[in-house]
Amino acid sequence: MTQEIHGTVADGFEGVREEFAAFVAGERPDYEGQLCAYVHGRKVVDLWAGTDADALYAVFSSTKGAASLVVALLVQDGTLELDRKVTYYWPEFAAEGKGGLTLRDLLAHRAGVVGTDSGFTLAELADDRQLAERLADQRPFWRPGTAFGYHALVGGALAGEVVRRATGRTLQEVYQERVRAPYGLDFFLGLPAPQEPRFRTTQPMAPTPDQQALLDAAPTGPHALGSIAFNRHAPDPTDLASLPNTPLVRAKGPASVGGVASARGLAGMYAAAISEVGEQAPLLKPDTVAEFGQFHSAGYDLVARAHKSFGLGFQTTADTWHPFLGAGTIGHSGASGSQAFADPWSGLAYGYTRRRFAFPGGAAPENNRLARAIHRAALAR
User: Fold this and answer.
1) Distance CA 249, CA 190 (A)
2) Which of 316, 352, 328, 313 is CA-nearest to residue 159?
3) Of 21, 56, 101, 230, which has fewest CB within 10 angstroms of its CB?
4) Reported pTM
5) What is the pLDDT of residues 175-200, one digit of tens each?
């Protein structure tokens, strides 16, 4: 039975509802997902299927977008300086040859400390301060600054420790005070206990036989760089799909993968970043958006073993996922299939969440058709 589509779209965005309905009709009967978008600070799409409007989902690495926004605000304030060495803020990070790395390179996934030799416990993965303490002592897996690779489970903790040393506040506290609370966003880095009933546990991937064959054809050794980055070499290997289903992870909200959000929360955050929302000015100035959306690492990603590109903390979404978007689009996807971004050229802010882990991981394939439909409607206005 096809899921019913709920919600509203603004005039001119009727085609987005049709595209969403067409996608959902081809999905499993138990599909759950949400889609939301703003254009120039005005909500134009608010749709969901198989769930309710207030459901919250684990958004995995889309969390890095919130962490990157905090860093961008602090750089904009002058509290952080991109070309200072990380050790200016965090002296212990100098161990094992990491002393020359700048904050700019750290944000661009060039630090080389994607994990540790022995891996992390679940308690450590949930706690950014414990992760940072372990990573400070770790010998990098490549010479810092000379190459890049996705710091999948630790990028937010590295940035967060710099934030904590510079401000005396955790990244999560700064996010709550400057971003989430002022806009009432359903995007949490640390889910409060009263919000727990809204959370929908992530469901495991359900690949087709052909998809499973593709997964089986690309195994990774237990001590390969990709395994280290995703903590699959630890004594208790991490099952990424179930990580945010752990209450401790949701409660602490680690800044790499621990965020919990609705599509409204994802899109609302990016709308606030680049546009006037209500009577509040954009969080980021155009020059800040341009700096953080500029290519800083592009080419062969040593962890992903594929072409990738990053700005400062953010993925360069127009290159990585959606080539129809404007240059300098900032955003981030999440392993379960979530996607969120802000396109400063069109004024589009986009958010998508789903419950079941998507194949093959990262932004779910449907994001391309959904984002394209919204972008097309936005340009036609």
Assistant:
1) 8
2) 313
3) 21
4) 0.97
5) 999 999 999 999 999 999 999 999 99
